[in-house]
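Reviewers of the previous submission asked for a worked example of the structure-prediction workflow described in the proposal, so we include one complete record here. The input consisted solely of the amino acid sequence. No template or homolog information was supplied to the procedure at any stage.
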Amino acid sequence: MNVEEILATLIAFPSVVGTPNGEIVDWIADYCQAAGAEVTVLPGPEGDRSNLFVTVGPRAGRGYIISGHMDVVPAGEPEWSSDPFVLRREGGRLYGRGTTDMKGFLACALAALPGLAAMNLRQPVHLAFSYDEEAGCRGAPHLLAALPTLCERPLGAIIGEPSRMQPVRAHKGKAAARLEVIGRSGHSSRPDLGLNAVHAMAGVITHAVAYGQSLAGGPLDQNFEPPYSSLQVGVIAGGQAVNIIAGHCTADIEVRAVPGVSPAALLEPVKARLFDLRDGGFEVAWHELSSYPALAPADGSKLAAVLTELTGQEPLTAVSYGTEAGLYQQAGIDAIICGPGEISRAHRPNEYIEIGELAACQRMIEDLGARLAA
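From that input alone, the workflow returned the following C-alpha cells.
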C-alpha cells in the first residue's frame, strides 16, 4: 500500500477522541505485523481504547521513536464539502478529518515501515501511537510508563504534529479544569432563601480573569507569542430559567504555561478561590480535565541536529500549540516536533494535507532508517 492508500484507510476509522479505538488499533497492528515488525498493544485504563508500540530492527540497542496519536477531533461542522471520514483528492490535496492532525503523519510512518524492515538496521525504529491526545494527552502517559519494558532508552522521539516539516524545539504546557458550584435553587422572588451558583461562579471567574491578566507580567519567554503564560475561561453553563435561582453552575478553564512554569501550579489560585465558596454554604468540586508539561528547548540537542540534516531546515525555536513532546522530555527522552501539514488547517472543516508534504515526511523517516542501517 502506498501512503495515500494507507491514509484513506486511516481516515475511514472515525477514531474521535474519547471513543473506543479498537478497530484502528487492530488494523495498524495487523499491517505492522505483516511488514515484519514487533507489535505491542497497550490497553488503557478506560478499557475500550489502547496505545500501540511497534519496533522494527533489533529490539536491543538505542533507537528513535516516531510518535503520533490515532484520535481526531469531532467533525460535526456543517461546512464540510464532503464526508470527513472519506478521503477526497482534489488536485494535490487530500481532504478528510485527521489528514493534517495527524493521520497523515501516521500514514507516512506506516508507508515507510516495509522499507525500514528490509534494511539491515543496527538500531531500532519504534512507532509509538497514542490515544486521546486531543483530550489533553491522556493516553501517552500510560505508554511512557510501559516504555522501559518495551525498549532501551531511546536516543530521541520525533513527534509528528503538523509543522510544515520544520523541526520545532519548544512549546507551552497546558492544564485545564472544570469548576463546579452547587447552591440552592428556589423562586427568584426570594433570593434570600437560595444560594445562586451562577452569582458565586461569577465571582470566581472575575478573580480568575484578573489573575490571568497579571500573568503578562512574567515570567517571560520571548520565543513564544504571547511571551507569557495565559489563562482563559472557555465554557460556562448553569441555571434553568431566569425566574429560578440557579442551583448549579460549571466553568471550564485552561492555562498555557511557558517552559519552567508548572501549568497545574498556575491553576492553584483559582482553585483556592473556588473552595473559599464553601464558607458561604456552597458545595464545590474541581475536576482536572487535562495536563501536560511544556517542551523546553534543549541546548546542544543531538536530535535537533539530526532533524536539521534529515529535513534540510533549521529548527524553529517554539510554537504556541501543545503536543506530547513535553511528556517525552519529562520522561528523560530528547524530543522534537516535526511533521507534515500546517496547524492552521487542523480542527476545522475541509482539513487537508498536500501530497508533496506526505512524500517529504515519508522520505525523512526512510532517511532516518538509512542512518541506522549497517
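The longest strand covers residues 173-182. We consider this example representative of the routine output the project will generate in years two and three.
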